[in-house]
Amino acid sequence: MIVERMAAEIGVPVNFVQSLARTASHEYKVYEIPKRGGSGTRTIHYPSKRLKAFQRWLLTHVIEKLPVHPAAAAYQKNRSIFDNARIHENSRYLLRMDFKDFFPSISQVDLARYISDRAALFAAWTPNDIDVFCKLVCRKAVLTIGAPTSPALSNAICYDLDVDLRALSEKKQVRYSRYADDLFFSTSQPNVLSEVQQGVSDVISTVKFPSSLKINSSKTRYSSKRGARRVTGIVLGSDGRAHVGRDFKRKVRSLVHKYDSLGPKEQASLAGMIAYVTGFEPQFANTLINKYGLPRFREAFGQTD
Predict the structure, then answer these.
(1) Which residue in 23, 99, 102, 248 has its CB near the most CB atoms, within 10 A?
(2) Which contiguous run of DSSP H or E holds residue 218?
(3) d(CA 132, CA 229)
(4) Residue 5: which residues within 8 A CB-CB, separation 6 or more?
């Protein structure tokens, strides 16, 4: 029984776990953070330390062991936005679609249906185990931005969705990937992606779970080699290759130039930004070294040895 095992390994009584599950929705602090691009704010529900301890245990011992479809590129070990972009780099046409309120669209009812549908994965679970699990990973009966369990759990719940969208894409000879709430479809054939868009709507309306997903039509984008094509922030160039955007690289160069005036947090952030770009375009390191010298590059990259 999962509740008894979790209680024993964390070192608390079983009735404490059950009590926490009943009141879990009240164990969050609410924060508002700016969205990228300055278009409003995003609400983050941050779990208390004690709730997070149980969520992390469930993440490690249950959720990360659940099957995830290969088309799901986010929240996966040894996979990144680079890998997601490269799936589409040789295409001429790109369609991006976006789910509205992705995590809150996945409900406690969806989780219960998923567990029932995947009974072999939860063979030793009792009804109490299922109830406690759902309550510990949900806030007010839905997944929430801020809980460490939500990203990986969303991938697992969306397995059948990814199966259906991959099948739709292969039927149209289109490539498909999903990065969290972003859907990407690409092809070199004209006049195909509009058919895919309609097919996506049909799939979403018939999939068993998650049952409340909706497309944010204001973020649906078509693009081609005639203009800028972006996949999770990566630019798909007219040369058929994926690149980090020029604006981002310009920002990195500017920060390297004024490195001495940066604070410790900004310096640490810069090291991460350099790793981000060079991980995708290794030659970018050479341009920084040639322009600012090896000592400055090593310092900015956090290589102090």
Answers:
(1) 99
(2) none
(3) 44
(4) 61
Q: Which amino acid is at 260?
A: D
Burial class (CB in 10 A: 0-12, 13-18, 19+), 156: buried
Cα–Cα distance for residue pair 103/107, rounded to 1 Å: 8
CA-nearest of 170, 186, 167, 183 to 220 is 183
In this structure, what is the dihedral angle of CA atoms 255, 260, 264, 268, given to the nearest 10 degrees?
Answer: 40
pLDDT at res. 275: 80
> Given strand 242-244, what is the order of strands in its sheet?
229-231, 234-236, 242-244
Helix H or strand E segment including 45: strand 41-47
Higher pLDDT, 53 or 34: 53
pTM > 0.85: yes or no:
no
**Residue 21 near residue 132 (C-beta atoms within 8 A):** yes
Neighbours of 231 (CB within 10 A): 26
The full DSSP string for 128-176 is HHHHHHHHHH-BTTB--TT-TTHHHHHHHHTHHHHHHHHHHHHHTT-EE
- 188: helix, strand or coil: coil
The secondary structure element, H or E, covering residue 60 is helix 49-61
Q: 241-299 pLDDT, tens per residue?
A: 667 777 778 888 888 988 888 888 788 878 877 887 887 678 888 989 999 888 888 88
Radius of gyration for the alpha carbons in the chain, expressed in angstroms and rounded: 22
d(CA 88, CA 176): 8
Q: DSSP character for 39?
A: S
Helix, coil or strand: residue 69: coil
Q: Which residues of 108-123 are buried (b: 16+ CB within 10 A; e: fewer)?
A: bebbbbbbeeeeeebe
Distances (CA, A) of 46 to 52, 53, 120: 9, 12, 32
Token pair listed for 92:
């001429």
